[in-house]
Amino acid sequence: MFFDEAKIYVKAGDGGNGVVAFRREAHVPRGGPSGGNGGKGGDVFLVADLQINTLIAFNKQIHFRASSGDQGRGKNQTGAGGEDLLIHVPVGTVAFEAETDLILADLVRPDQRVLIARGGRGGRGNWAFKSATVQAPRIAENGEPGAERRIRLELKLIADVGIVGVPNAGKSTLLSVVSAAHPKIADYPFTTLEPNLGTVVIDNRDMVFADIPGLIEGAHTGAGLGHTFLRHIERTRLLIHLLNGISPDPVGDYMAINQELALFNPTLAAKPQIVVLNKMDLPDVQAAWRGIATKLRSLGVPEPMAISAVSREGVEALLRRAADTLAELPKEFPLPDDETALVGYGPEFSGRSGMSTATDKSFTITHDVDGAWLVQGAYIEKIVKMTQWEYYDAVMRFQRIMQALGITDALRAKGIQEDDTVRIGSKELDWSD
Ligand SMILES: Nc1nc2c(ncn2[C@@H]2O[C@H](COP(=O)(O)OP(=O)(O)OP(=O)(O)O)[C@@H](O)[C@H]2O)c(=O)[nH]1
Ligand SMILES: [Mg+2]
Questions:
Q1: Ligand 1 pocket residue status of 246, Cβ below 6 Å
Q2: Is any ligand 1 atom within 6 A of the Cβ of residue 176?
Q3: Which residues does 263 contact at the CB level (< 8 Å), separation at least 6?
Q4: Atom number of ligand 1 nearest to Cα 187
Q5: In degrees to the nearest 10, what's the CA dihedral of 254, 260, 261, 262?
Q6: CB proximity list for 222: less than 8 A, separation 6 or greater
Q7: What's the 314 CA to ligand 2 centre distance in angstroms?
Q8: CA 291, CA 125: separation in Å to the nearest integer?
Q9: Runs of H (alpha helix) within 238-352
Q10: I want to staple 233 with a disulfide (CB 3.0 to 4.6 A). Which of 6, 162, 187, 211 is the partner?
């Protein structure tokens, strides 16, 4: 089994709590505030690792948590930061946010690192709350919770050229004669159960070939093995469409496979193809070649080729043509410049809540089952977690934030009464004007 999909849960470290402390100095009855900030929570990264070939490890472990920051200390010392967590994945892994299916990271380069969940910042200690008017603040913040999210990992092979065709066309045989790969070869269909990769060198140019399991009609709906693997071809820049010379109808096969590619994903059908008839060492195939070539040309194939993977006749010309074609094609996957690129490339990711911590200040007000007021919103729920309720100043600050976000007015507008219960996240408050 080729493990090319996995779902994981990641949680970045929470920030450490800030503390309330005061300097004690001889002869000074009460020193200034000295409570330090909490340390930052550890981040979670995905790292592309050449040593790993499949996502099989994520069958066993699916929860990943980075460690939290330490709490602040007296003498205005910041707590130690939590350790970052590196999750090693194969090169070629694409990470999606499970809920939205948005691409978070496309790990195409060895050792590429992508931040997928940011650790919470440390809560501020009372030293940080000192101001001209507040000389001895009795307030500190809890650490900000680390981001958490569910992620779907998908492994897509990274190859320049995909060899596609019906079962038994000789795809694995071709790979075995042009590269050092040793795929299994046999004259029954679906010999190849997982894609095989091989590096091919011609005229000092190298390219990576992928031999894909045989495709049959209905592949796009899951028939045969094909559909699991069709997505791997999405990343190739060129296809070698290999026809089985001894098939009763190689041209019919050719059309059927193209149909499957198009039905799976139109961009697959639009990929450039080199169409090649295989098994030319057999007299019957040689006899049929002219007619097949004519039909292919009439279907719009510019220069159909013929080879024998076994005798290697025509193989070198095929490789040369593949290398020439690749040289003309744009490199399809632009890479981020920065090795430690942040999650996602597009503007749709900036400020997404799963990635960093909650920034969305919108809220809703409903009634909970027991009639209590229920205020929900990512940002205010985060503030609840970061408030140290035992300090009066902290409670006052929380109320100012409620006011600033418009939650207080919204509750009044909805008719909240003295002593009503308001629930926000894990906190219950008694309303009082
Ligand atoms: N005569 C002849 N036989 C070939 C040639 N290429 C492959 N074969 C034979 O065709 C059969 C299928 O070859 P494979 O390379 O396993 O075919 P495949 O396309 O990888 O097949 P699947 O993995 O099942 O999709 C084997 O018996 C090969 O020996 C060729 O050029 N000439
Ligand atoms: Mg094969």
A1: no
A2: no
A3: 220, 221
A4: 27
A5: 110
A6: 228
A7: 20
A8: 83
A9: 250-264, 266-269, 283-298, 315-328
A10: 162
